[in-house]
UniProtKB/TrEMBL annotation:
Protein's name in the database: DUF4848 domain-containing protein
Signal peptide: 1-28
Residue spans of biased composition, Low complexity class: 113-125
Region (Disordered) location: 106-125
Keywords: Signal
Source species, domain of life: Bacteria
């Protein structure tokens, strides 16, 4: 009798234990299948920091300054062996956006340029195709055309050099950050802005702004810092910048925008075109060095494939406004092509939504046996 009771007790205990184990396992599965609040929040935050194309794809919208800064910081992170052009094309496609960079690139190809005739356009394309795979560079041959260094003609000068910035701007030079739409104006070297809520002002913003609801800053001002401090720009109709507080809000004015561009013509119809620029765009500042190998076809300089190198120099030095100390880059350079169609080399030394107090940068470039430079920009107080 005692034995039977003991056996029954053991069976009851075993069944109870199994029941508790099954309940525990079920609860654990339920917990495992439930999303982590932290993970969900992280994914939402990441999505909110991604820009979206708005107004039917007219321009990109960044929800916050932090989101804009994150993109500008990460947009230059290329995979090993990936060209910047391919990288930026993928980025723009992922955001369903036709950028200023893509717009300019299309115009810089034979198919994007109006030729005098279909025959000329076909000839140009065929000639370019025959030179695209050439890696051997013609040596200077002399002749009627003067060979050697040159200065970039005014007709070839471009307002923006930094392709990473051009990838987030529309062909109208516009972008939305937070509640404002900004537009860079090359003719006046200003950055205009207005509230994104006023949808009727966009066409005026990209033409000749006069509305009292459109304002501007000089492009050498730290625009986002000033706005966070509650300091508005000048009304669109105002002809002068009269706000004397300075872009650094007490730290003095920004460094001047300066550039050094030109190159070397190493045969009758081939050249290496080079640029070194402190890009000052109000909402974005950078030091960018870039060189492209080009071939002259039908009187126009087209991109031509060749291995372009950035020559080692002492490096770049700069001091960010209000920071109070300098930064330098004396590390190794990315000396091979790997930009675009392997015809261009590019290096972005500095980038930020805050400008610089001073800078000093020297670079040189080479393609084959032809060298160009040194190119130098400097600003100091």
């Amino acid at each position: 009798m005692l034995h039977q009771f003991s056996l029954s007790a053991r069976r009851f205990a075993l069944l109870t234990s199994c029941g508790l184990l099954l309940a525990s396992t079920a609860c654990q599965k339920e917990q495992d299948s439930s999303p982590s609040p932290l993970m969900s929040t992280s994914k939402v935050d990441a999505k909110e920091q991604e820009p979206i194309a708005v107004r039917g794809g007219k321009h990109l919208k960044f929800n916050t300054r932090k989101a804009f800064e994150k993109t500008m910081r990460e947009i230059g992170n290329l995979a090993p062996g990936e060209s910047a052009q391919t990288h930026l094309e993928k980025w723009e496609k992922a955001h369903n956006f036709l950028s200023l960079r893509a717009h300019k690139a299309k115009r810089a190809t034979p198919q994007g340029t109006q030729a005098s005739s279909t025959q000329n356009l076909t000839s140009s394309a065929q000639l370019l195709s025959s030179t695209q795979s050439a890696s051997i560079i013609e040596e200077p041959t002399g002749g009627d055309e003067i060979l050697g260094t040159y200065e970039t003609p005014a007709s070839e000068q471009d307002y923006l050099t930094d392709d990473f910035l051009a990838s987030v701007l529309s062909p109208d030079y516009t972008v939305q950050i937070g509640e404002n739409i900004y537009r860079l104006d090359a003719a006046t070297d200003r950055i205009y802005y207005t509230s994104a809520d006023n949808t009727t002002l966009y066409d005026e913003l990209i033409s000749t702004p006069t509305s009292p609801e459109i304002y501007w800053y000089p492009t050498d001002q730290n625009v986002l810092d000033l706005q966070e401090a509650g300091i508005s720009g000048e009304p669109a109709a105002s002809l002068r910048w009269t706000i004397g507080i300075g872009s650094g809000i007490g730290c003095g004015p920004n460094a001047d925008r300066r550039k050094s561009e030109g190159g070397v013509i190493y045969s009758k119809n081939q050249r290496l075109d080079c640029k070194l620029v402190y890009e000052s765009a109000g909402i974005y500042f950078s030091i960018i060095a870039k060189a492209q190998n080009q071939k002259k076809v039908l009187g126009i300089w087209w991109s031509q494939q060749a291995s372009v190198s950035l020559l080692p120099r002492p490096g770049a030095m700069w001091e960010e406004l209000c920071v109070g100390y300098g930064t330098s880059d004396f590390g190794s350079y990315s000396n091979s092509g790997g930009y675009g169609d392997n015809n261009t080399v590019s290096r972005r030394y500095y980038q930020s939504t805050r400008g610089l107090k001073s800078y000093n940068c020297t670079v040189g470039f080479a393609v084959g046996n032809a060298q160009a430079g040194p190119f130098h920009i400097e600003f100091a107080r």
